[in-house]
# Entry
Amino acid sequence: MSSALTDVLDRAFGHPRGVLGRLGGAVMAHGNGSTERHIVHVAKPVHGETVLVVGPGPGVGLAEAADQATLTIGVDPSEEMLQLCRQRCAEQVRSGSVLLRAGTAAATGQPPESVDAVVSVNNVQLWDDRPAAFAELFRVLRPGGRLVLSAHEKWLPVPRHELATELEAAGFTDLQTWVWDPPGVGATRAAQLRAYRPAETTE
# Structure
């Protein structure tokens, strides 16, 4: 692949920015929407909970989580994607039930043990330091909280079972991994994982 094409794809999808980033966001909203909603369904947020969405892109999953949780926080390094999220979740942003900030999986800006669920779709393949990211997500989850990840299987940085091993090394337990075929012509198979921060035990 030429360096020029690689740069175009990165500007549109990898690290969205500028006009290409906004166009990429529209493509992602259409192509990833069913997976975003499915992953929120797997995470099962409820009223009273706080959900952290890592890499919300154009905000489809963010909006879905905001319909169910009390507080939904989106962190993304792309200002273009954050702006799309502000537009999609304008009412929730105004009411304070959706918060948006620049950030990454390895630097969420969240206090320790402050969220009940973390969800992320088609983002893990972009993390430069997965051990640091998994450690950060473990840190911000409350005891008993869950992490749900999804990514195009063909774009995974390592096989999904290796990702599960990395999550276990970060302290997560009750690992589950599976594949899911999104509906629609041309939709690509997703690899998905769910893991939990261990609940506190009393002696």
